[in-house]
Amino acid sequence: MPNRRFADGEVVMGRWPGSVLYYEVQVTSYDDVSHLYTVKYKDGTELALKESDIRSQSSFKHRKSQSSSSSPSRRSSSRSRSRSPGRPAKGRRRSSSQSREHKDDKKKTIQETSLALPVIFFSFNQKPSENNTRRYNGEPDSTEGNDTSCVILEQKLKPDLEVERVLEQYSLRPRKEEKKKEEIYSEKKIFETIKTIEKASSKTKELEFGGRIGAFMLIFFLPATVFYLLLMCKQDDPSLMNFPPPLPALESLWEPRVFGVVLLWFFLQALFYLLPIGKVVEGLPLSNGRKLQYRINGFYAFVLTAAAIGTLLYFQFELHYLYDHFMQFAVSAAAFSVGLSIFLYIRSLKAPEEELAPSGNSGYFVYDFFTGHELNPRIGSFDLKYFCELRPGLIGWVVINLAMLLAEMKIHNQSMPSLSMVLVNSFQLLYVVDALWNEEAVLTTMDITHDGFGFMLAFGDLVWVPFVYSLQAFYLVGHPTAVSWPVAAAITILNCIGYYIFRSANSQKNSFRRNPSDPKLAYLKFIPTATGKGLLVTGWWGFVRHPNYLGDIIMALAWSLPCGFSHILPYFYVIYFICLLVHREARDEHHCKQKYGLAWERYCQRVPYRIFPYIY
Predict the structure, then answer these.
(1) d(Cα 598, Cα 17) in Å, to the nearest integer?
(2) Which residue of 53, 146, 365, 372 sits 20 to 30 Å from the alpha carbon of 505, by its own alpha carbon?
(3) What's the pLDDT band for 117 if we cut at 50, 70, 90?
(4) Is 447 helix (H, G, I), strand (E, B) or coil?
(5) CB-based contacts of 162: which residues, under 8 Å, 6+ apart?
(6) Mean pLDDT across the chain, nearest whole number?
């Protein structure tokens, strides 16, 4: 176990997370397990820092000249060279050797002066200003004067600023040298240095999903999983013991007509997105302070889509064509998502540094391609990520479910759909309509604010959501399951409980994020943080840390129960959802701990359960 360097109570310099600013802090404790120091800033903020983010105060104090001991001797020896009594004190020319010695002493004096400069640190993301407490972005108070609690990294950029001041004070530099220095340290070079360091600091350092190898494997694993699930549902006995399922001929998986329908669907939803209906709202501030505008008309797009589908059914269009060519539709959607991902990555190479995603700027092609290199890729005002998040895949999910309902009626010669199919369609329709009705809430999610738009979201939005989330309906077409009315009532109550938890928890969070001072939220208690935001400790968020995930899992279970218990395949969605939400929960925990520091630890002590109360 490594020994700790700093003792409790010791005053040191601590780096503020996410910047290169160092502030004067006091060590309060040390965790032997996590090897983190708990430090306290002058404004009372407490954070947990790594040992690499802490430095002693002595490293920030003015460095003394390495040759200071020899300087007085040289000066005294220079003074000891007394003039001859016969020479006048003024008007005589010095010898050449004395002139050279004088110049050498002058150069040494300049060198000594530069060695005696203070080490100053500068934050490139913020401009220092007097009396600036920086509480608006969660940074502790800055101090003024000679206090070392706010030191600026300026020596790396303009190390001769202080030298110039000293040299001008003692008139130690000729004008030609001064002009030369001004040319070397021009403003252009300074801003180029700042830009280079900003670029290096914005790189993604912590890789998720198993890093480069994990991202590479997921690019192939995700499509293989979708095709495996669809092939298994087609089998008479979709048992896991029947692995692998018989593979169809490759030429049967592709049909240009199906791909044309996929393109038509995508561009039809894009047309609905561009319609000048619905309100326009601003998203959360970006890293540069700018706010993007979004048109909220997803529910209108859903209504227009329902009208278009109703028109097709009125003219006796066979919507169960989707069921008959389901694998071909999945392959076409996957091919389109891959093409879209390649386009997104190529265009992201020309995007400015401030428009890149915090999670997808690692510098590794495979990882950035998978997670998304650009945060908000736009063509004019058309936001590609925001559009794909709710429109083509989510609305397409409802259309696929309807196609499965019609296919069940046709294949089994039924005049009415089965109760199981009605339950699945109704529950999932409610979920989609809720998402579109509360479309504005998606602007505060990590998908929009943190994740880039790459293969992960493109494939997830356009392939995984419509073709995996509709797995229960697809399963019931080939494996009908009878459900009694009492059982159906119990499943409905379970779904309503999950939906109530999901919606009320999300509404609390979104309302509090938008306006914490809203009188309607006065009953909510929260823990203040150094960022200026608060962590709710009452309501659903005082029950468990992620109540919305709890509601999601309960609803997913209600969607699968109408399929019975003959096979585990319909419950893949529940298993996947639990794994996904546990991963997201761990991801949220990591980000929140970094962002909120000790405030998050206090929140975790106040709310010990993550998703499942009294279990996890």
Answers:
(1) 13
(2) 372
(3) very low
(4) helix
(5) 117, 118
(6) 78
- CA–CA gap between residue 116 and residue 282 (Å, rounded): 51
Cα 599 from Cα 603, distance rounded (Å): 6
Within the chain, which residue ranges are assigned CATH 2.30.30.140?
10-58
Instruction: Output helix, strand, coil percentages for the chain, rounded to the nearest 5.
Output: 55, 10, 35
The CATH class given to the 10-58 domain equals mainly beta
pLDDT digits (tens, 9 = 90+) for 1-28: 457 888 888 898 888 877 778 888 888 8
For residue 480, cis peptide bond before it (omega within 30 degrees of 0): no
Whether the CB-CB separation of 438 and 504 falls below 8 Å is answered with no
Give pLDDT, residue 28.
87
Tell me how crowded residue 554 is: count the other CB atoms within 10 A of its CB. Answer: 19
Residues 6+ apart with CB under 8 A from 393: 460, 461, 462, 463, 464, 465, 466
3-state SS assignment for residue 279: strand
Determine the straight-line distance between the first and last CA of the chain, rounded to whole angstroms.
30
- Tokens coding 343: 């386009």
What are 412's two structure tokens?
């089994």
On whether the pTM is more than 0.85, the answer is no
Note the pLDDT tens digit of each residue in 500-549: 999 998 888 878 877 777 787 778 888 888 777 788 888 888 888 888 88
Pairwise CA distance, residues 307 & 320, whole Å: 18
Closest CA to 16 of 157, 118, 159, 126: 126
Amino acid at 27: V
Residue 410 and residue 417: Cα distance in Å, rounded? 10
> pLDDT class for 616, splitting at 50, 70, 90?
low
Query: 3-state secondary structure string, 402-415?
Result: HHHHHHHHHHCCCC
- Exposed/middle/buried for 601, CB within 10 Å: 0-12, 13-18, 19+? middle
